[in-house]
Design brief:
With 92 residues, the chain is an all-alpha fold. The chain has 5 helices and no strands.
């Protein structure tokens, strides 16, 4: 799946969580992968660990090591600050 397609799918799913304004991210997705990785990094910073890990368990990041690294970095930072969601350790 193309990065643009994957991010669009993720943002639509995340938009179901009314606490996150994923629609704003949908308007920023482009054909430029570098820009899309940056947008994804910002998105993950606002996204719940639960949603990130659910999407991982469903295999949405399997084919993109860079996306997995972006997620792992954010989750590691959350872990360092004793983030309260218990599923953070499930992302491997």
């Amino acid at each position: 799946m193309e990065l643009r397609e994957l991010l669009t799918k993720l943002f639509i799913i995340a938009n179901l969580n009314k606490k996150l304004v994923a629609a704003d991210y949908l308007t920023k997705v482009s054909d430029n992968d570098e820009k899309n990785y940056f947008i994804f990094g910002n998105f993950i910073g606002e996204c719940s660990s639960t949603l990130v890990c659910i999407m991982h368990k469903l295999g949405h990041y399997d084919n993109d090591e860079r996306l997995k690294n972006i997620i792992a970095n954010h989750l590691e930072i959350r872990k360092c600050f004793d983030h309260s969601e218990v599923d953070i350790a499930d992302f491997n």
